[in-house]
Write a sequence for this structure.
């Protein structure tokens, strides 16, 4: 299969909006990454520029055109580059996204190592090996990094965790390597489920992490978990707040991310409304991660 890559460069707020638009047209999900200075353009601050990429099968040119039309409408409201497209053969696509990744050091001891790179870890380092494919969650985006730092600080041995919107599975694998012992990783996207399951296997965490297609459910996941990690979008977190609270045991912790800074108060209010009090706010660039504790 050949692929058509559609990419747009914009700022942090625009990147979220572009990803939401593109996710309507591709099953694999859009990927947000910090961009190269040369791609930022004159209207975007290069220090805060992101490129959003989505991949369409080569026989879905109608989908590409519909996505471009939707992006044109969005561009009337947000500053962004014109959409760029290029066709890639399967082997070229496999290499196209690999060039964006390198060894990443996060927090005090966490290291994301792409599966195709060699790395000799230090004795204190915890290695998360990743083959992200087309699933979100590579460590390049601030929200992933902030979540990993919060997990490093909050994960206790033996914890039960639910990872909502697992993407590549990076957060579930991180928690497993930090000592969590029963993790349910959920995603609605079948490609993300496949990718996460593959990454769990690469990291030999199959006995700890179960990857399933679906989302957190107020009627199913009740008082089962010590930790909820939800790295999606502010609006979705607000919508799922009752289910998050239902899933947590009293005293349990939620790590909520994917939140633009001006939307953080909305999420704080939504969590407070279901008995979860925010105890910490982490921020990198325009992105915020909240740590909350269930008090009821």
């Amino acid at each position: 299969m050949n692929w058509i890559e559609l990419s747009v460069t914009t700022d942090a707020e625009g990147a979220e909006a572009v990803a939401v638009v593109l996710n309507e047209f591709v099953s694999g999900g859009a990927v947000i990454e910090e961009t190269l200075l040369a791609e930022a353009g004159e209207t975007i601050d290069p220090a805060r520029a992101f490129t959003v990429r989505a991949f369409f099968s080569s026989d879905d040119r109608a989908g590409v055109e519909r996505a471009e039309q939707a992006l044109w409408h969005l561009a009337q409201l947000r500053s962004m580059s014109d959409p760029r497209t290029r066709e890639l053969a399967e082997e070229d696509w496999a290499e196209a996204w690999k060039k964006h990744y390198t060894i990443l050091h996060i927090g005090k001891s966490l290291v994301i190592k792409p599966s195709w790179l060699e790395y000799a870890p230090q004795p204190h380092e915890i290695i998360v090996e990743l083959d992200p494919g087309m699933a979100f969650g590579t460590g390049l985006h601030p929200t992933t990094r902030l979540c990993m730092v919060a997990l490093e600080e909050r994960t206790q041995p033996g914890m039960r965790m639910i990872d909502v919107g697992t993407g590549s599975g990076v957060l579930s694998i991180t928690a497993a390597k930090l000592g969590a012992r029963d993790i349910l990783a959920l995603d609605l996207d079948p490609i993300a489920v496949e990718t996460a399951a593959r990454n769990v296997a690469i990291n030999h965490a199959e006995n700890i992490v179960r990857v399933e297609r679906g989302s957190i459910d107020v009627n199913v996941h009740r008082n089962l978990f010590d930790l909820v990690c939800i790295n999606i979008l502010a609006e979705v977190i607000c919508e799922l707040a009752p289910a998050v609270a239902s899933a947590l045991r009293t005293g349990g912790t939620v790590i909520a991310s994917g939140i633009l800074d001006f939307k953080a108060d909305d999420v704080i209010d939504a969590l407070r409304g279901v008995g979860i009090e925010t105890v910490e706010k982490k921020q990198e660039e325009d992105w915020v991660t909240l740590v909350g504790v269930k008090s009821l």
